[in-house]
Design a protein that fits this description.
Strand order of the largest sheet: 14-11-13-12-18-19-16-21
Bound molecules: flavin-adenine dinucleotide
Radius of gyration: 22 Å
Oligomer: single chain
Shape: globular
Largest sheet: 8 strands, antiparallel
Strand content: 15-25%
Structural class: alpha+beta
Mean pLDDT: 96
Low-confidence stretches: none
CATH topology of the largest domain: Vanillyl-alcohol Oxidase, Chain A, domain 3
Distance between the termini: 22 Å
Length: 450
């Protein structure tokens, strides 16, 4: 923690900027959706910012960086604070910088959008669509989530069934970043170098602008389907996922009793598994045919454009929105994030489903990983103890199912389980004094300790 004088010096340096020290506001700007995890709730309970600053442009961002470096105060960035792992919660106090006012869409030319880091994804899409383009990928929080927050804290979501993750080569073409130095350098990074800031929780550079590759904007069609049996629904989803002629934006499977728990109970009868699909309007007929051939029933259909940007879209029953709806009613649950290997995803899903029964309720999101169709799990877990939660995670890992642990704020544990030397090298270059979001990158702290 920084002493009060240190914070006061920063406040003096930043005269004219929106500088917040009200305790209620500090609490609000220090929290994200880590409350999904009972483990993180405990771990982060007393962590908060000592000041929040809300710059309006890149020059103000530079002033904030410069002052924090000169006074050796930690700086943690925040988009909209919808992250799930305390990513924007400062572990060592200091300043939280809200990037939400850098929200301009700079330009959209052809299939590329250049935006400021604080631009909300929904607003980028709204500008791109009249030009015939749209964002390739959106988290289910797209109405709030910012471009920078999605790139540095997110993974994928709606669109992942076609475009993989936001960190896959070709999805984000470049970023403009500032170094954490008394005289901040501005760097324009392209391709692989830009990807070294992907999913790094803002520990290795302050992004002020991003360039997204766009997708053609189709007429999308949302469908909610109901299946009498979980594995039949999974096989249907696998077949639909592979159907090259049906262009897809989203493909979700929610095992019984999840549809009843997450607010789909008006459409999906008890005992049934739900599938949510968003396909092009031209693919709707083929979707219905495939559904019927797998014993399924179409229970709801709607035009995506009519509901996009509102809570009525089925998007808000997928990805971590499913967990959110359930948690609002039932505080006794938590969740997992898992990845199944493409060559055995259906078999492994069945194995885990049979092994855990209703203790680990199956929520699957179909996606492309390294080009291959597979699914990831956002399983809903009946929480008993941290020990049992760790046993469940370990059982998955022992049986070839990858778990990106959502119950840790450490970058490595929440990701691939190991450090990324390129991310660390980028931190050495752009944050040589380790002042950005300290405590999140284990490899950096280990190196410092050594
Ligand atoms: C209900 C719910 C559903 C969700 N669904 C999805 C989903 O479908 N897919 C998905 O990937 N995620 C999902 N998430 C997680 C989260 O919403 C997304 O990752 C979202 O994109 C985060 O955006 P944000 O602006 O809120 O970022 P924040 O949470 O504010 O920040 C995320 C991280 O990025 C860093 N950061 C922010 N701005 C910058 C910047 N300019 N430069 C450098 N670092 C920066 C922060 O320090 C933090 O570490 C979900 C979360 C919830 C609660």
């Amino acid at each position: 923690m920084t002493d009060e004088k240190g914070i006061k010096r920063i406040q003096d340096d930043l005269a004219g900027l929106d500088f917040i020290t009200d305790p209620g506001q500090l609490e609000r700007f220090s929290r994200d959706f880590a409350w999904f995890s009972p483990v993180l709730v405990k771990a982060l309970a007393d962590k908060r910012a000592q000041a929040v600053v809300r710059p309006r442009d890149e020059e103000e961002v530079k002033r904030v960086i410069s002052s924090c470096v000169r006074h050796q105060v930690p700086l943690t960035l925040r988009g909209s604070g919808t992250g799930n792992y305390g990513q924007s919660t400062p572990l060592h106090g200091g300043v939280v910088m809200d990037m939400g006012r850098l929200d301009a869409v700079r330009w959209i030319e052809g299939a590329v959008a250049r935006v400021q880091a604080g631009a909300r994804l929904v607003n980028i899409d709204k500008e791109a669509k009249p030009k015939g383009w749209e964002l390739r990928l959106l988290p289910s929080t797209y109405r709030l989530a910012t471009a920078g927050g999605f790139y540095c804290g997110g993974f994928g979501g709606v669109g992942s069934i076609t475009y993989g993750s936001i960190g896959d080569p070709g999805n984000v073409l470049g970023v403009r970043a500032l170094s954490m130095e008394a005289e901040p350098r501005v760097v324009e990074l392209r391709g692989g170098e830009a990807r070294d800031l992907y999913h790094a929780y803002g520990v290795n550079g302050v992004i002020t602008e991003l360039e997204f590759a766009l997708a053609p904007a189709y007429d999308w069609h949302e469908a909610l389907l109901s299946f009498p049996d979980f594995m039949t629904a999974v096989r249907f989803a696998q077949t639909l996922g592979k159907a090259s002629g049906i262009i897809k934006k989203l493909l979700t499977v929610l095992a019984d009793p999840l549809p009843q728990m997450c607010g789909l109970d008006k459409s999906v009868p008890p005992g049934q598994t739900a599938v949510i699909a968003i396909v092009t309007a031209t693919g709707a007929e083929a979707l219905r045919e495939l559904c019927g051939a797998h014993d399924g029933t179409v229970v709801l259909e709607q035009d995506h454009a009519q509901v996009y940007g509102t809570p009525k879209t089925l998007i808000e029953h997928t990805w971590n929105h499913t967990t959110l709806h359930i948690l609002k009613k039932d505080k006794g649950i938590t969740y997992l994030q898992s990845g199944f290997r493409p060559w055995e995803n259906v078999e492994k899903v069945e194995e885990m489903y049979r092994h855990f029964g209703n203790e680990v309720m199956m929520h699957l999101e179909f996606l492309r990983a390294d080009g291959a169709l597979t699914c990831s799990g956002l399983q809903v877990i009946r929480y008993s103890t941290e020990e049992r939660l760790n046993e469940i995670i370990q059982y998955h890992r022992d049986n070839g199912v990858h778990v990106a642990n959502p119950h840790t704020y450490l970058l490595e544990d929440g990701n691939k389980g190991e450090s990324d030397p390129r991310q660390v090298a980028m931190k050495r270059w752009l944050d040589p004094q380790g002042l950005l979001n300290p405590g999140k990158m284990q490899a950096w702290d280990d190196e410092a300790a050594a």
